[in-house]
Amino acid sequence: MRFSTSIINESANVIYFFCFKNASNYFLLLILIIFNPTLGIIFISLFFYMHVKNHKNKQIIKPILPLSKHKFFLFSFALFTIVSTAQLSDLARLDFTILPENNSGVEFTKSRALFNVPIKLKKHQEYLLIGLDYSNVNLNINATTLFDKDLVDDFQSLDLTIGYTKPLNSKWRLGARVRPGFSTNLTANSLSFEDLVISADVVVIRERKLENDKKDRLILGVTYSQNRGFFFPLPFISYYKKFHKKWSYNVGIPKTNLQYHLATKHRFKSSIELDGFTGNIQNGISINTQSRRARIFNISRIISGIQYEYHIIKHLQFFAQAAYTLTNNIRLRTNNRDNLFTVNDELSLFLKTGIRLKI
């Protein structure tokens, strides 16, 4: 309990320090409130919590890093290995995604919250990662349909993350992760086996420091997720290289990007990536033109666009992404994953914003 409380307090300290010590960043917080009220309310609540706490103690608490620089580098490298399959190194994350209503009258929104707690094991440079990842997906259909659209307007997803990483030798490190959970529209009275989703990843990673403060990173492995929208294992290939003081790139599957480091706190990314979602339809759904009932709600898309990142302080980052779907398929499927009905295949604008606490 003391460990969990310290993490919460430290996260609140980071946000409070950002708001209290950097008055110019109030404008950024205002933008966050406008585009994502939920995140704004959370930030304001944490800000006032720390303000009252620090006022009572008559001190301003600054975020601290309870590790030496060398140990923190090893810790960061180890934790990055565990979560590299998501191409993220997030300790906590809140984000909101919207695909505005297009010609087919379909609007998609997704709210997501996650946290990860790294635990150092007794053996040298071995770590365990425990976390939770929650998503709420809403589909607003403003058009006449051949099925009951209320059965697919709200899906809940919750995954438990268990990860492990260890060094293989002086150059390579192993990372493995399993994520059991559920993804469903929750129209029945209870969860069932059909609501269960499983994700698993295994990767090896090598990171090298090159000349003139340059570096590269190679990740090889395989990833599978019943909740990603793609029903088959995918190779995970990622090669990252910082080839210039202001430029770097990451080539691979499921994401490729080119990064421009404008300044210490500002970065732009141009990317192309896979995105998707799968949820169980409890009790199924009838489609007027089909004799079989649909049991699976499935989204698979490829998106490409630009992302802006602002490092509020060293480990706290705000991001905003504007992209467009190159493919965008929302389908109703059978338990055997046969396609019964295409809800939407129109291309659309893709917008995402959020904030994350990174290693």
The CATH architecture of the largest domain comes to Beta Barrel
Please give the largest β-sheet.
14 strands, antiparallel, barrel
- CA-CA gap between termini: 22 Å
Shape, please?
globular
Q: CATH class of the largest domain, please?
A: Mainly Beta
Stated plainly, the CATH topology of the largest domain is called: Porin
Domain count, please report it. Answer: 2
Distinct helical segment count: 4
What share of the residues lie within helices? Answer: 10-25%
Element-level helix/strand string: HHHHEEEEEEEEEEEEEEE
How many beta-strand runs? 15
Beta-strand proportion: over 45%
Radius of gyration: 21 Å
Structural class: alpha+beta
As residue ranges, the low-confidence spans are 1-28, 30-39, 58-88
Give the mean pLDDT: 79
Strand arrangement, major sheet: 1-2-3-4-5-6-7-8-9-10-11-12-13-15
Explain the overall architecture.
The protein is α+β, with helices and mostly antiparallel strands. The chain is 18% helix and 53% strand. It contains four helices and 15 strands. It has a 14-stranded antiparallel barrel with strand order 1-2-3-4-5-6-7-8-9-10-11-12-13-15. A hairpin with a 5-residue loop joins strand 6 and strand 7 (215-225). Helix 1 packs across helix 3 (37-57) and helix 2 crosses helix 3. It is globular, with a radius of gyration of 21 Å.
